[in-house]
Design goal:
OB fold (Dihydrolipoamide Acetyltransferase, E2P), six-stranded mixed sheet, alpha+beta, five-stranded antiparallel sheet, single chain, 32% strand
């Protein structure tokens, strides 16, 4: 593994920002640190960068323990949420800044900056100042400046937070492609699940200073291993009592029963419902257009949760009575989570 954290602990007074954190990252991967505010993800990033020092444990990069190595000597590029560009410097000079500090020759600096300007798609903008650029263009310059010294690790602290939604989508795809083409190992902090799923090769889910789960986006989404991950990852709602719904096995004592929109099938009373005998009646509370589907909020057996209907399906109205069938749920007890499939399903018919 290229980057390893082994039993990392970090406290600020009585607050434990990292609680025995351990994980590994392969070279060339783009990994997301995903978690709610205060979960410890930024502290992990800053310790890898050398901007914070762990109280105990080891940080290993390329087989070498770097705990006592200064940030400037770790071979790491860092991209901040606020761009942190020098506003009185041109695009060229911002990108060249780290190279000038290293006292590279003017010819070498020019060649490297021109290479990066082409990489980020800003040819012709070299003489512009940050105030003359859009938010997306400024962030690309920040990426280029971090990449200029040719780091083997690129760290990004919520790199898309200050950018509008349309540009954010474009930059996500661009960043993932760039990281893979360059072979750089990238780690970025985010609280945006869509961003983590779309951009990263792997996700490290953090909560209260601990690592809850690591894996590919699809593995974590489909197979959460802790109660926190099952309720945090994806769009989730809680059922007041899952045993009120038909044909689920009973697991005894449990804390929460969690359902996602794709676990639910809502049909109008005059529509075909494959599992009609196992469906229960609900009442539509809301229906919202979500671009490629309609998100329907339904009140059913004292629980309120969401489902999706296709744009080509007949519309449901607020207050309308509908049939509700739940394919599966997550049931938690303590820190454990179990997936329950509706017993009415004799074979797998839903792909998630």
């Amino acid at each position: 593994m290229y980057i390893e954290l082994r039993n990392i602990n970090k406290s600020y007074g009585s607050f434990k920002a990292s609680d025995n954190v351990s994980f590994e990252i392969e070279k060339g991967k783009l990994v997301a640190l995903l978690g709610p505010s205060g979960s410890g993800k930024t502290t992990i990033l800053r310790m890898i960068a050398g901007l914070e020092k762990p109280d105990s444990g080891d940080i290993i990069i390329d087989g070498k323990i770097v705990n006592d190595i200064p940030a400037s000597e770790r071979g790491i590029g860092f991209v901040f949420q606020s761009y942190a560009l020098f506003r009185y410097m041109t695009v060229f000079d911002n990108i060249a800044f780290g190279l000038k500090v290293r006292r590279m020759s003017n010819a070498a600096i020019k060649e490297r900056v021109n290479e990066l300007v082409k990489l980020i798609g800003l040819e012709g903008f070299e003489k512009r100042y940050p105030s003359q650029l859009s938010g997306g263009q400024r962030q690309r310059v920040a990426f280029a400046r971090a990449l200029a010294p040719d780091p083997q690790v690129l760290l990004l602290d919520e790199p898309f937070a200050a950018i509008d939604a349309k540009v954010r989508q474009e930059l996500r795809r661009w960043l993932k492609d760039m990281i893979h083409r360059l072979g750089v190992t990238g780690i970025f902090v985010t609280h945006d699940q869509d961003e983590a799923i779309e951009v990263s090769d792997e996700i490290i889910v953090t909560n209260k200073g601990r690592v809850e789960q690591t894996g590919t986006p699809i593995d974590i989404y489909r197979h959460p291993t802790t109660a926190f991950t099952s309720s945090f990852f994806g769009v989730t709602s809680e059922l007041s009592d899952y045993r009120s719904f038909k044909t689920f096995e009973e697991v005894g004592e449990y804390d929460k029963a969690i359902v996602r929109p794709e676990f639910v099938k809502i049909t109008k009373k005059n529509e075909f419902q494959k599992y009609k005998s196992s469906a229960v009646e609900g009442v539509v509370q809301d229906a919202q257009f979500r671009g490629n589907s309609i998100e329907v909020t339904v009140n059913c057996l004292n629980s309120v949760f969401s489902a999706r209907r296709g744009l080509d399906e007949p519309a449901v109205e607020i207050g309308e009575k509908v049939d509700v069938f739940i394919y599966r749920i997550f049931v938690t007890h303590g820190d454990e989570v179990k997936l329950l499939k509706n017993n009415a399903i004799r074979e797998e018919t839903v792909i998630i």
